[in-house]
Amino acid sequence: MSGVPEEIVGGLARTPILLVACDFDGTLADIVDRPADARARAEALDALRRLAALPRTEVAVISGRALADLRPRLTDIGDVHVVGGHGAEWTDGPPVDGARAAHIFDALRPLERRFPGTLVEYKPAGPAVHYRHVEPARHAEFLDAARAMSVELGASRLREGLLVVEFSAVSTDKGGALTHLRRRSGASGVIFIGDDRTDEDAFATLSPPHVGVKVGEGPSIAPLRVAGVQEVAVLLNGLARARAREAALTGSVPIDAHAMLSDQRSLALIEPGGGVAWLGAPRADSPPIFSSIVAGARGGAFTVRPAGEGASGAPGADAQTYDGESFIARTRLGAITIVDYFDCTGGRAFQRAGRTDFFRHVEGAGKIRLTFAPRLDFGRTPTRLRATDNGLIVEGGADPLSLRAPGIAWSIEPDGQHHTAHAEIDLPSDGLTLELRIGSTATIPSTGGELARRQTTRQFWTGWANTLKYSGPHEALVRRSALVMKALCHGPTGAILAAGTTSLPEQLGGLRNWDYRYCWVRDGAMAAGALVRLGSTGHAMKFLDWLLGVVDQLEHPERLRPIYTVGGNELGAEGELPELPGYAESRPVRVGNGAGHQVQLDVFGPVADLIAQVAEAGAPVTPDHGRLLDAMVESVARRWNEPDNGIWEVRGPLRHHVHSRTVCWHAINRAIAARRALGEPARPREAELRDQIREDVLAHGYNARVGAFTAAYGSDDLDAACLLTGLTGLIAPDDERFVSTVRVVERGLRRNDGVMRYVYDDGLPGNEGVFHLCTGWLIEALHAIGERERARSLLDAYAAQAGPLGLYSEERDVRFGVALGNYPQAYSHLALINAACRLSRDA
Questions:
Q1: Positions marked catalytic
Q2: Could you give the dihedral angle defined by the CA atoms of residues 700, 703, 707 and 710, in that order, rounded to the nearest 10 degrees?
Q3: pLDDT tens string 306-341
């Protein structure tokens, strides 16, 4: 009997997201006379255990056995999906109503007397009748009787397996279960192994590159076959070894292990090994000069390494740090240290992006090897290099670009349509300075030495940090979070980036990869508001000025888009770069964001809240800001009762989202507060509108059956954003409806020390990690309902999830403890600030 070819196993091992699924009886366990005596083979369970422990790998056992019977047979094998009743019962799903199954079970018991040797087995999804010990001469008679009883009892389906028939009380099959798992996991490669006739339903859902494997003799539509249970164990172990080997070969630098650098115009990420993994310039939303974090070798390289036999580029455990409260990174590699930063002298942070200087100063001793290989616009633009006495000129881009590196003899080599420069030198005693000049091809000496510019740059960041006012838990991390949000502020305009990168995945190997290098009006206002809580109003005022410029260009402010470039322009069409491998094989890499043209009615509330915050803080609110506040109120009045795409930008039908409606209420409530802070007379119409929206949310947003405010009107779906009902004040924190919402959200969406946004089907395959912003909301909500110790415990756990430099990405994979999503993420840092500020009231 043929086995599974090595090339098939190798192909499965290399797939970005692999789903390994199998039956239990006759596949993991030998067929035995009494089903209760079946035991899975230890070597097969060990293989499943090792597969389940690998990244981007999902494991499932789909059996006809009842879940209560199946789960004890699969103990201690890790994070495995266990599915019983041919797909009716799930470890993470609702319980099956067994009343109908019990009725069918009672009706079938007479078969045991009519056909001696028959065993009727109860299962919640529908009884099974085993006839292995019935006289073979009576098998046909038994099957005729079973088929007749199936019709008489109205069973959803009669499954005929190997000497067993199963009467389904619910409409399920293994094919449906496998399809659901494929979609939920986002699997790009699937293998299903089974021996029974009921496994044919699963085989029928698979086509190349997915693989079905039949165990044993008998007809099957599966293209591959193995002899028996022992061969299944061999196959699973071989797949586990191959998958582990591929995982080791394709290991990526953790997202949150990168140091982020900024001059409030351009943005870079530096790997712990000293390479420039990303550099977007002259603006952070410009096409990148280096992009290896998502483009691999196509994205270019700018590296400094110790040279010589046995030299290591691997950093030590404490190899990368920031110089105090700044964005000057120090990366230690053996005997050398690289000091990286953007020059922030001379008011550059607030000048139009046109000339940016990125410094790499190398200190230490010994021979070093340099590689300079810019790849403009993800390598899509041919990038050529020309040597001069003082460095290299980069040719091919729209913006002038050069590397000042005096005294270095570069070797320039062709690399397809690009050039790559290499050099190997003895490190001078006073160090080596490499200066990437964005916006200039001049490689002549600059005014002011490198050390003086570094010290002034350090003062630029630390001087601002010293103005922050905060005393409470995790003070250093809160201050670093504030610095991150300042770094995401575009100095020339006041726009605030949602994150610094594009397409870092929300699921490793998956397609939930988006471009966040833009300003979401909602996110920007929330980020600026968090800085106001720390006593800094300057960026809030500049953000509001930027937004005024955007609104003034609109036909009516109610048409405010969710997203704009840092220059205040609408986004173009979303596009994909299919030739790029993506971070950790997570395709596609995207540029632009289609959500820029969605309807998101929660955009107005954070703006009104920010105006109220700065007014309450005593900042100089102008009549123009009052005009902006009026625009937000009028926009809510016109549109608050419309459906929208919601905060999570689900690319599906519009719904009446509870969060959007809540934040519309928040807009009016905070507008009233702003007028009070400014000494303006109250406007009765606004109070009436506020009360109208609140009554609507309370009447339609709370789902008594679920015991919580849910994602949308008439929906049972949980949504962590519904915690805003209490956090904004729409409902009192001690109202039983809010307390119950907190409990239900925590029970349904909390995963270890993080919180999911939602778990309902959003129309995209795959899943994602816990969302840091939602974790921050739950911390605040627990505090609001009086559970302060639990809130503090969760805050401590959240603080512990920061990367080694104190930076957060968007999400976290709780299974493997790795960062997910774009980086660094404003939401994640403002969540920490807001939660810490709320808890600091107890300090």
A1: 23
A2: -80
A3: 997 444 444 443 489 999 999 999 999 999 999 999
